[in-house]
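Lab notebook, bench 4. Still working through the backlog of constructs that have no structural model yet. Next entry is a single chain of 125 residues. Request: give me the structure tokens for it.
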Amino acid sequence: QVQLVESGGGSVQAGGSLRLSCAASGHAASANSMGWFRQAPGKEREGVAVIYTGGGHNATHYADSVKGRFTIAHDNGKSTVYLQMNSLDTEDTAMYYCAANTGSSWWPPFEYNYKGQGTQVTVSS
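Model written out:
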């Protein structure tokens, strides 16, 4: 089992920045990849970013909608994944969820086998 707890959400004006954190516990070391996905009211889940955490390299992948604005990073010592979000737009408003995968799946992160409870991000114009 892997437990995930997100933090760092909040309200920000367009153009601003937020950093989300996801602390993993339990058998966090068994996760091969971790990532973020989001869901806005009335919309489908959207993969945001993933990072390989299985050791050896930290490959990443981003949705086109956030590429160049968001950065995912992993602190192996703290079993924590971060999502730095810059140049936020009102379209980024959503509930953001952290996910961890102990299998071989890579994308999208909402298909990972462990998910957190989510943290709300609201961007106002």
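Notes after review: The longest strand covers residues 18-26. The two ends are 40 Å apart (CA to CA). Flag for follow-up if needed.
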